[in-house]
Specification:
With 280 residues, the protein is an alpha/beta fold. The chain has a single domain, classed as 3-Layer(aba) Sandwich (Rossmann fold), CATH 3.40.50.150. Helices cover 30% and strands 20% of the residues. Strands 6-7-5-4-8-9-11-10 form an eight-stranded mixed sheet, with helices on both faces.
C-alpha cells in the first residue's frame, strides 16, 4: 500500500490523525490516536493489576497501523514492575511509515521514532530490559497460528472495520482466534465496536462478551474474553431481547458483509452461553 494512500486529517478534538483514502477510514476518529488508545485499550486491560502475577505478560497488538496503540501500551508498561512482550501484527507497514514521515503532525510517535525505525528494519526490538517488541507482517489470520508466537494475556483488536475487512470479523476467523488462546491464560480483548452482530459473532465463537468504556461519541464499546471473570460488566440476559428484535444481529459468515436478523438456531446458541445462565 503506497504512502500516498494516506492523508493527515484534523479531528473535531483538534488532534491530528491519518485517513486511508481508499476506503475513507480515519484512524482513531473520535478523540485522537493516543487518547483513544489509552481509554479504549490500555485502561481497560488493567495491566498494573494483572501483569505482575505472570512470568511474562503477552500483548497482541492486532492492527499496528500508525503505532498509537503500541506506544500507549509501552508508556504504561514502563511504570509497571513486570516483564512484557508486545507482538504487533499488520499486513502492511505503510501506515507506520507514513506516520514516521509526518512526525510534525503526528507528534505522539516522535519519542519512539528511533524504536519504530529499528523495529521496521529488524522485526524485533529490546526496548527496555523488561519490554520486548516483535513485528509480524502478513495476514493475521495465518500469522497468529505460528506456534512460536505465545498466546496472549491481552489483545488490542484494531483492524479496519467490518464493512471493508470482513475476513477479520467473521465467525470463522473468531472461532480460530478463540481456539488459539490458552484457556489456562485468561485473556481480554478490547475493541471500539458496540454492534450487536459483532457481539453475537464473538459469543458464537466461544467468547464471553462484555460492555466496554464509553469513548468520544460512543456510549459504550465491547470486550471479549476466554474467562468470564475478567469482564467487569458482562452482557446480561436482558441484552438478548435486543438480539431477537434487531434487524442486524446475525453473525458475520464468510467473505461477504451481509447483515440481517439472527436465525432461530443461532439465537439458541447465543442464549445458551454460560454468561446468560443464572443471571438477571
Amino acid at each position: 500500500m503506497p504512502l500516498s494512500q494516506f492523508e493527515i486529517v484534523q479531528l473535531k478534538s483538534g488532534v491530528n490523525s491519518l485517513r486511508l483514502i481508499e476506503n475513507n477510514e480515519t484512524f482513531h476518529p473520535g478523540i485522537g490516536p493516543l487518547a483513544e488508545a489509552n481509554i479504549l485499550h490500555v485502561a481497560q486491560h488493567r495491566f498494573a493489576e494483572r501483569a505482575p502475577s505472570v512470568p511474562i505478560f503477552i500483548l497482541w497488538d492486532v492492527g499496528l497501523g500508525a503505532g498509537a496503540n503500541a506506544v500507549a501500551a509501552i508508556d504504561a508498561f514502563k511504570t509497571i514492575p513486570a516483564d512484557f512482550e508486545i507482538h504487533s501484527f499488520d499486513r502492511s507497514l505503510s501506515a507506520l511509515e507514513f506516520a514516521l514521515a509526518h512526525l510534525d503532525e503526528l507528534d505522539y510517535l516522535a519519542p519512539y521514532k528511533d524504536a519504530c525505525e529499528e523495529l521496521l528494519v529488524k522485526g524485533f526490538l529490546q526496548l527496555t530490559p523488561r519490554i520486548r517488541w516483535y513485528l509480524h507482517l502478513g495476514d493475521f489470520r495465518e500469522v497468529m497460528l505460528r506456534p512460536e508466537i505465545p498466546a496472549p494475556h491481552s489483545i488490542f483488536y484494531d483492524p479496519y472495520s467490518p464493512r471493508g475487512n470482513v475476513d477479520m470479523w467473521n465467525l470463522e476467523h473468531f472461532q480460530n482466534l478463540r481456539q488459539r488462546l490458552d484457556d489456562d491464560r485468561p485473556c481480554l480483548l478490547t475493541n471500539y465496536t458496540r454492534s450487536t452482530y459483532v457481539r453475537v459473532t464473538w459469543l458464537m465463537a466461544g467468547f464471553a462478551v462484555g460492555i466496554g468504556t464509553s469513548i468520544g461519541e460512543k456510549e459504550e464499546t465491547s470486550l471479549a474474553s476466554n474467562n468470564l471473570e475478567l469482564l467487569e460488566r458482562p452482557l446480561l440476559p436482558a441484552w438478548l431481547v435486543r438480539v431477537k428484535v434487531s434487524h442486524s444481529s446475525a453473525p458475520l459468515r464468510g467473505p461477504a458483509y451481509e447483515l440481517g436478523p439472527i436465525l432461530p438456531e443461532d439465537y439458541t446458541i447465543v442464549a445458551a452461553q454460560a454468561q446468560f445462565q443464572g443471571q438477571t
